[in-house]
Structure formats: C-alpha cells, structure tokens
Amino acid sequence: MVESKNQLYIGGEWVTPSTTNTIEVISPFTEEVIATVPEAAEGDVDRAVEAAQAALAGPYPQLSAEERADYLTKLSQAIGARAMELAETITAEMGSPASFSLMGQVFSATMILDGFANVTRTFPFEEHRAGALGPVLVRKESVGVSAGIVPWNVPLFEIACKLGPALAAGSPIILKPSPETPLDGYILAEILDEIGLPKGMVSLLPAGREVGEYLVRHPGIDKVTFTGSTAAGRKVGAICGEQLKRVTLELGGKSAAIILDDADLATHLPTLMPSALMNNGQACVAQTRILAPQGRYAEVVDAIAEAVKATSVGDPTDPSVLVGPLVAERQRDRVLSYIDKGTSEGAKLAVGGGRPAGLDKGWFVEPTLFVDVDNAMTIAQEEIFGPVLAVIPYSDEAEAVKIANDSDFGLSGSVWTTDVERGIDVARQVRTGTYGVNSMATIDIHQPFGGFKASGIGREFGAEGLAAFLETKTIVLPGDYQPPS
Predict the structure, then answer these.
(1) Mean pLDDT of residues grouped by 10 in the chain (485 residues)?
(2) 20 to 30 A from 364, CA-CA: which of 29, 131, 336, 376?
(3) How far apart are CA 409 and CA 338, in angstroms?
C-alpha cells in the first residue's frame, strides 16, 4: 500500500500546498513507489519565509538560553520515543541498512540535539569586557531567518545538524529535505507539534534543486546552511557571496586512512572497515582511500579483500546485512561508471565490481576493492559515494602524508598504528577538518566538524556550530558603568 501525504508543514501548521505537484518516494530495494508527498513550490517558500520572519519578531528568540535548551531536550526525547519508526522509515526511503539506521541515522540525531542543549546552557550569549575606552557588552544574537538544505544520505541526522543550532540561537529555520527522503521529515514535523514549539520557527518543504535555489536566493533568508556535493555547494556559496548572506557549507570528501608500517591489522581493520563502507558507502566522511606501506602492501590488500568479501549485502531491513542498495538508479549507474573508469585507467579489481549475485531487483553495487591504485587516478581523486575502496601504496610516512593531502578535499581521515603519539603527529600534518587515530569515529558530534579546501566552509556541532547561527554585537557603555551584581 502506497502511503500518501497531502499537506506541507509550514510555520508550524499543516497547510494545503500551493500546487498539486507531488514527489514519488521509491524504495531502492523493491524499486516500487512506497509513498507520495506534496512537492513544495515557490509560493510555499514565500509563505514559510513570511511565517519565519513573524516568528523572529515573536517570543521564541527572546526566551532565555535555558528555555531554548529545554526545547532541544524535549525534541531529542520525543525523537527517541519514535526511534524505531524513524529508523525503519529511513531504511525504506533510502536503503540504509537496519544495522546502521537506528544508531547512525536516528540516535546520532538525538545526540546532536543533546549536545546543542548542553552548549546552549553554558554559551556566553552576553559578556562584559574591558574596552579601549571603557566597559563594553558583547552580545551574540540570532543571525535571523535560516534556510537548511538537507541531503538524502543521512536525512534526520542532517536536519538535526541544522535545526539544533538554529533553535539554540533563536533562528527560525526553513528546512528543505531531499525529494528522495521526505518521509522522516513528516514524522519530525509531528514531533515538533507534540513538544509545542512556537509557530513559525520551523517549516519543512520537500522539493528539488530549483525550489532549493529559490529558497537560497530569497531576500527574506539571512543564513544558509547546506550539506551536499561540492559542485552544488559552489553554487550555493556563490549566491550567498553575491547577496552577502551568512553560509555554512558541508561538502564532499575523499578521506584517506593511513595504515602505518607498525599497524596491527587484526586489531585495526575490524575498526576501520565500518567507517570505509558505512551507509552503503554513501557517507561524505567514508575512509575510501586506504594507504598501505609498500613493505606490507600484499598483506594489507589480502586482509582488506577478505573483509570486503565477508561484507553481507542484501535486504536493508535484515539486521545482519551491512550493505544495502544505493539510494537511486542514477546513483547506482554513477558508481558503476566510476568502477569502469578505474579499470580503464589501470587499477586492478580485487573484489566486486558489479551487481551482487542473486539480487536482480534493487539498486545494488557489490562492495568493491581496487588495488594497485595511483593517487592520480579518477577513483582516487573524485568522490564516488558508493561502496568502492582503493588501496594505494606508499614508500614512507612522509609520502603517506603527501598522498593523503594530494586531494581537492579535506573533510576527514584516519591513521592506524600501535604508537598513538606517532599517530597524533601524522594527524597534525594531514589537512582535514576531522581526523581519527585508531578510531572508527570519523566525526565527533559534540565537537566542531567541517572541511578544509573543497570540503566546505564553516563548522557544525559544538560551540562553533552554534556560533555560526549568531551575529556579534558590541555595545559601548559609559566609562563609569558597573554591571549589576
């Protein structure tokens, strides 16, 4: 049975859309339509911006930091109460395996909200300082009305990345979920109603790129936060630069995992591999370039090949499955085109490279391992966004760092060694926004996250993520002013 929605959540109210256009949500496992939802149009954006501007002048932005933090805590708890429903919905709409969805898609979102609640309670929204001529008061105020463009790979997680700091800062926000994954947003809207969030603070408008661009360009938007491809991020950044809008861009990655010559493969590979193939390879922080020392190259390749071969593929609702289908047919075809490019440029296929046996329906690609890869090859330079790994040899530690840095991207990365201090030294040399030493945690969702180079601008999470939704105001006070005790 196809689920059908006929309303949009605009300004905290369920309303009739401005057009009759709809989005068909297609299961990447069955290739069948599982739901239809309204497709937001420009008129819906206008209405959402109007509601947000009214909310900006309303009571919520004037709440105390403690009161705003309480809303975040309530939201986190309410999401947790419907965690299984949300996880199953995300698995159905985008193919994320059940083994990943509950923690990686849902509880990661509640952890983000909890983190922002904690930051908000202690953040210095007002600070008295000694100025050049006398005392000053430095205030952090809401940036204004925000727009959040959300990708399809971790939809609820990415909504939390944007909604959390917006609510913490008192910034009304209009969220545009991807047309591939609008269903979890409907559950979230119901939850926002349940916790009694003031009207106008949040709108959710599922739509495609054209409406997304209209939202970004809208004169009523003060701040844009975007997660997606680097190509799309460049366009968003150009619009915001032209209009002098505040912008945060979390973009692509091509992260390198450096296996040092002293690594304990039996210990380290079981920790590395989940961060290489997470979410069917559809993760911007996936460790897709694996750098191995020449002296141990064959040993590393053999061990990784065995791990990739052992990765279970199939029905994403099966808890034992680690890799499900890719989100869409176009994504499957894109990944296969990169595999063809890898073989044509001289890389050797060690594992996979096609459709898994016995899975004739669904947008599957086998977990794939390339070896004998040169870092100049396309598969080592461009983000594939699928379960495709490349093992690249290096001669010494200095060359490993050089190869890791030889990328347009700088989002994440890792190093694997029995000497943690040596690993920290390597981490200091690699130009990425987040780095792990013997850790599968490619990000820390309570600490700043973002990219160097073409991986983005700005930071999410933690105090830095909250600051991105704030403007700074300096109030110069009389020379004899004494703040109240």
Answers:
(1) 90 97 98 98 98 97 97 98 98 98 97 98 97 96 98 98 98 98 98 96 98 98 98 98 98 98 97 95 97 98 98 97 97 98 98 94 98 98 98 98 98 98 98 95 91 98 98 96 87
(2) 376
(3) 18
**Same-domain check for residues 91 and 182:** yes
β partners of residue 142: 470
Residues serving a catalytic function are 250, 284
Question: Minimal CA–CA distance to 327: which of 151, 105, 104, 85?
Answer: 151
Written as one letter, the residue type at 451 is: G
201 and 269 inside one domain: no
115 and 33 fall within a common domain = yes
**H-helix or E-strand containing 414?**
strand 413-416
Domain, as residue range, for 185:
3-251+455-474
Distance from chain centroid for Cα 110: 14
Nearest to 48 by CA among 211, 236, 205, 240: 205
Q: Phi, psi at residue 130, to the nearest 5°? A: -90, 120
Please tell me the distance from the alpha carbon of residue 337 to that of residue 16, in angstroms, as a whole number.
41
Q: 32 φ, ψ to 5°?
A: -115, 155
In the three-class reduction of DSSP (H, G, I as helix; E, B as strand; rest coil), residue 16 is classed as coil
Structural domain tally of the chain? 2
Phi, psi at residue 14, to the nearest 5°? -85, 120
Residues in the chain: 485
pTM > 0.85: yes or no: yes
- Which CATH number is 118's domain given? 3.40.605.10
